[in-house]
Nitrous oxidase accessory protein NosD, contains tandem CASH domains
Amino acid sequence: MLVATGCATASSAPSATAALVRVPADAPTISQAVTAVREGGLVLVSPGVYRESVLIRTPRITLRGTDRNEVVIDGEVRRANGVVVTAPGVTVQNLTVRDHTLNGVLVTGMSDEAGGVARGSTGYTRLDTAKFPPLNGFHISHVTASNNALYGIYAFNSRSGVIEHSYASGSADSGIYVGQCKPCDIVVRGNVAERNAVGYEGTNASGGMYVLGNRFVGNRVGLTSNSDYLEALVPQEDATIVGNLVGYNAEPASPAQADGGFGLGIGIAGGTRNHVAHNRVVGNPAAGLVLSSSEDLPPIDNTISGNLLEDNGFDFVYAASERARGRGNCLRENTLTTIRPAPSECFEGAGAPMPRMSAPRGIAFRTVARPPLQPNMTEPPKPRTGPVDLTGYGVPPLNLFADRAGVRP
C-alpha cells in the first residue's frame, strides 16, 4: 500500500500510450505508472509515502517527484530495493528513497525477466558481461537516498550516465557506488555523501569515470577507487577525481563495512592511470590519501597533483605491497606535510604498511540520523553532451554544500 496526501482519488490506470502519467491521479502506484507510460514519457509523482519497490523496464522514461522531500519510496525495512532501472536512457529525479534492505536506486545491465540480478540486488553470482551487456544511458538527479542497508545509489554494469546533485546517507557499504564498467563514461558530480561506511566507491570503474566537486565528509571512509576480482573488468583504470571535499571521515554514528575501514579520506587500491587533482582532503585521522595494492594488482602510473591535504594522520601514504610492487606513481604540486614512507616525487616498488586505526562498532543502518531537507530541482537538468569540462573544479572550500549536510565539523 501507499499513503498519499493532498491528492485526488486515483482513476483507472491509463494505457501504455500515455506520454504523462500522474501518481496517484492517473495511476494509484508508481509501479503501475511506470508500466503504463510510453517509451520516452514522464511519470510525475505527487507528495506521499509510497510503500513499494519500483522496477523500470521501459526505455527513456523519466520518473520525477514534484517535491524531493515529500515524495518518498519507503522500503519499511522489508523490501530490497526502492527503484530498479533495467532499461536504457531512464531518468530518476527529485524524490527520496529510504529504508530498503539493499539499495535505494539500482541501475544495472545485469537483468533478466525478474529484474536486476547484480551483486547487491539478489546476491552475488559470477557475472558474465557478454551475456549481460551494460545498460547504456541513465541520469540520477536530486535524489535523496537514506537508511538503505547496502548502497544508496548503485550503478552496476552500466555506462554513459550521470549521478548528480543527490544525497546519500546511512549505507552500510557505499552511499554512491559505480562498479564494473569499461569504458564507464559516467560523471558523479555535486553530490553529498555522509554517515555511510564509504561515501563513494568505484570498483573496476574505468575509462571516462569522473568524480567531480562532491562533498564526502563524515563517513567512515570518504572515497575509494579500487580493483576487485569479485567483479569483471579488472583492473580499475583511468578515473578522474577532481575538486572534491573529502574530510573528517571517522564518523562513529554510521554503519560499518565488513572490512572495518575507518578514518581514511581517499583510497586507491590496485588502480592504474588515475588522476587525483585539486581535492581538499582534511581531518582524516588515519590518512588523507593512500595508494595501495589490491591482491596481486599494483598501483601503476597514478598522478596526484594540486591537492590540498592537511590535518590528516598522514597526508599521503604509499602502501604498495611486496607481492604487487607499484611503479610510476607521482606527486606534483600538492600542499601536504606528512608522507609515508620518505618523501619522494615518484614512488616505485613496495611501500609502507597500510595505516590502520581502531574502528568503532558502527550502528544499524536504520538508526542513522535522517537527512536534512534537501533542495528541490528547479528545472530539469539537460542531458550531458560532449566532453567533460574540468576547468571549473579548483580546490573546494571547507563549506562546500554545507547547507545540505547534517555533518558539519
